[in-house]
Amino acid sequence: MPDTLFPEDLTVDFTPTRAAGMRRLKAFMPVMGGKYASGRNHDLGPDDRSSVSCLSPWVRTRTVLESELVEAALSRFALSTAEKFVQEVCWRTYFKGWLEHRPAVWREYEAERDRQFELLGRNAGLRKTYDEAVEGRTGIDAFDFWAEELVETGYLHNHARMWFASIWMFTLNLPWELGADFFLRHLMDGDAASNTLSWRWVGGLHTPGKTYLARRSNIRKYTGERFDPTGLASEAPALEGFENPGIGELRLGGALPEGEIGLLLTEEDMNVETLRPVGSTVKALAGVSFADHRSPHGASAAAKAFVNGALADALARGEAAYGVGATAFDAMMDVTGHVHDWAKAAGVDTVVTGFAPVGWVRPHIMAATRALAEDGIRLIEFRRDWDAAFWPHARKGFFGLKKKIPDVLSELGFAV
């Protein structure tokens, strides 16, 4: 187990504000080089997150941008030294770009997830195993701890997520879709692409035939012998399931407008200060969180608290930046109608929102786009340069994007 990396800041403050995210980013900057590379796989427990950045909830909502993480790393280290940290940032980008090329994978996940929930009601044995897993009553010490930790905190170390998913699938023999849903409901950083494709990767579906087996010795080593799980599966045969479809064309954002606009925030992009296109003026500001739409069973209190808190913070920052009042919509009501009425009342003919990638937010943005168009109002999705530069390289495995990282960063203006 590595030594504590910065003992003055062991407990992460998951306050859902940009100020808190930037404080964590600043605190973690000294660790983004060799210390991160050597320590990132160690899960030291919820009271010591010094080996990982824990920035994912802020990045998921783009309260803090991916480019800001990389800029911080490269301001202190050469790319060769901060390579592992930069690659981890790019893994999230890769998954989102990969799913943009293959949206059918998300639709198939949703359909099979719903089917598996129906089976739970008819299969008492499956229901018992599922309940024991999500309630942390399997008798596998590490797994049970992580199940409780996830429910209580809304966060898990990335290595623990991999171990958990492997045990779920290969030891408990539970459907991966139900595990992915369990994560998505509870994770503060719950993301359609990263979550779905990570579970598929562990199960041998994302990279066909390549699985991840949770081993007792590995868990003992990388948790500082906090756990000694017994009864784990000795093999991880690849799951059968929906195969990766062919590569489709990327959906582009709209041409960015000038003049007066309405700015609409969702959990896909709450970096309100940088969403305003150059040459435009924000005349109206609104936001909506769709956290409860990520699962048929909604979202946990921790997950909703972070997303809703981040939205409230973003709207407050937007009010200060643009001198306009902000409106928060209730996602459980007629969001499309409310957005339409808000834009009409503001007298804007263009609404700008952050790009909605494949996931549970996109259908609502598509519905609002159609409704607004009927009254001659455009809804334009702002696709960031980061996504536009990296996503075309997310067509196959991560290696294809990984080898392009230096070139893409140079294209984006980073000194590498």
Q: State the major sheet.
A: 5 strands, parallel
| Measured distance between first and last alpha carbons | 32 Å
Instruction: Show unreliable segments.
Output: 1-8
Which H/E pattern describes the elements? HHHHHHHHHHHHEHEHEHEHEHHH
Give the strand order of the largest sheet, numbering strands 1, 2, ... along the chain: 3-2-1-4-5
Radius of gyration, Cα only, in angstroms? 21 Å
The number of helices is: 19
**Mean pLDDT over the residues:** 95
The CATH class designation of the largest domain is: Alpha Beta
Number of strands: 5
Q: Count structural domains.
A: 3
Q: Classify the fold: give the CATH topology of the largest domain.
A: Rossmann fold
Report helical residue fraction. 40-55%
Features:
416 residues; alpha/beta; Serine Threonine Protein Phosphatase 5, Tetratricopeptide repeat; DNA Cyclobutane Dipyrimidine Photolyase, subunit A, domain 3; Rossmann fold; 3 domains; five-stranded parallel sheet; 19 helices; 5 strands; 49% helix; globular; disordered N terminus
Give a description of the structure.
The protein has 416 residues and is an alpha/beta fold. It folds into three domains: 7-100 and 390-411, Serine Threonine Protein Phosphatase 5, Tetratricopeptide repeat; 103-222, DNA Cyclobutane Dipyrimidine Photolyase, subunit A, domain 3 (Orthogonal Bundle), CATH 1.10.579; 259-383, Rossmann fold, CATH 3.40.50.620. The chain has 19 helices and five strands. It has helices spanning 18-28, 34-39, 56-60, 66-76, 83-101, 104-120, 124-134, 141-153, 158-171, 176-186, 192-202, 216-222, 272-275, 301-322, 335-346, 362-373, 385-390, 398-402, 405-411; strands at residues 259-265, 280-288, 326-329, 350-354, 378-382. A five-stranded parallel β-sheet has the order 3-2-1-4-5, with helices on both faces. Strand 1, helix 13 and strand 2 (280-288) form a beta-alpha-beta unit.
